[in-house]
């Protein structure tokens, strides 16, 4: 799959070079590009992520550095048997996305050509990575977490391409980084007994040191006006540096219990990321997600209730 893409690119590069006027810019004379260093520089975008100054959260800065290195490694190995501009371009795109402080997802096994056994191995590794993130790895161990994601992508890419040595090396580095993440990430993930009805709880009343941000239905987007509540919580946290913050994600009782659990985790993680990006030391933060099992406003199962689509921020 990869080799076919490169052959098409190479043919295009040669055709453009032969047909272009002497003073035209071609893949062979792109300004700032050394042909012998990168012959297909204008066909595959593998260089546009270089030398940018990533200024997002530490996790995304780590992703940027890792994906730049991975892109360079894949696209600069063209004199060897394992060059791959297609994946070089992919990793460059991921680097640019991380530079913008946007979400960068690891490759899913379904996106790669793998055997069933390989796909199962990578699915398990991906779930391990996600669990580490859900437990706060991106904030409590940002460099290790970023390194783990990059090495997961390195491992799956090398496995698909049949480079066993590279694959094993990247797998070993992934395992080591994940062990470091798991040793530091300690956010609680609520264990749910799905056979027990959710308890009814009294409606929560915000206090001076408690902030409740509401969300749209089935979404991690804030309900209108509620983004300012998170900003208020951030300001309070920065003004009271000796406090700790407990973040609890909730969902209403419409929809499946398991789905609502995941949705409440995503909401909690959004708030945590914004607090950390705003300058709150992640060691001050503890987080958990309770799904629909602890409704702030008591309702029957299946009822949509805006007051339960919430993240509660407690300063203690």
Strand order across the largest sheet: 1-4-2-3
Kindly, what is the distance between the CA atoms of the first and last residues, rounded to a whole number of angstroms? 55 Å
- Number of domain modules: 2
Can you give the mean pLDDT?
Answer: 78
How large, in whole angstroms, is the Cα Rg?
23 Å
- Our estimate of the beta-strand percent is 5-15%
Helix content: 40-55%
How many helices in DSSP terms?
Answer: 9
- The beta-strand count equals 4
Structure in a nutshell:
Helices cover 47% and strands 7% of the residues. With 316 residues, the protein is α+β, with helices and mostly antiparallel strands. The protein has 2 domains: 2-184, no CATH class; 210-315, 60s Ribosomal Protein L30, Chain: A.
Question: What does this molecule look like?
Answer:
By secondary structure, this protein is α+β, with helices and mostly antiparallel strands. The chain folds into two domains: 2-184, no CATH class; 210-315, OmpA-like domain (60s Ribosomal Protein L30, Chain: A). Helices cover 47% and strands 7% of the residues. The protein has nine helices and four strands; from the N terminus they run αααααααβαβαββ. The chain has helices spanning 2-19, 58-75, 85-99, 116-134, 137-140, 142-160, 164-184, 227-239, 257-277, and strands spanning 210-214, 245-249, 285-289, 310-315. The chain has a four-stranded mixed β-sheet with strand order 1-4-2-3. Helix 2 (58-75) runs antiparallel to helix 3. The longest helix is centred in the middle third of the chain and has 21 residues, at 164-184.
